[in-house]
Amino acid sequence: MSLEHSLLRDHDVCALLGCSRATVWRRVQDGTLPQPVRIGGITRFVGAEVHAVIEKAIADREGVILPQ
Fold first, then answer.
1. In terms of DSSP H, where are the helices of 1-67?
2. What are the tens digits of pLDDT across the range 6-63?
3. Closest Cα to residue 32, out of 53, 8, 62, 6?
4. Which of 17, 19, 32, 52 is a Cys-bridge partner for 23, taking CB atoms 3.0 to 4.6 Å apart?
5. What does the alpha-carbon distance between residue 41 and residue 25 come to, in Å, rounded to a whole number?
6. Residue 45 neighbours by CB distance under 10 Å
7. What is the pTM of this model?
């Protein structure tokens, strides 16, 4: 499965970011992280969207302008 189509649980996002589940959901609430998708009774984050947030944070830190 490619990263573009990977779906992550909130626990997976916690591991990527090194934070608690509560922090993940606070970041969703404040718009720092993208809203997850709901499929049936499950809630998952789109892997590519989470990784894009990480890449943007790296670029912002380094002052690099990413192509849109």
1. 10-17, 21-30, 47-62
2. 999 999 999 999 999 999 999 999 999 999 999 999 999 999 999 999 999 988 887 6
3. 53
4. 19
5. 18
6. 23
7. 0.82
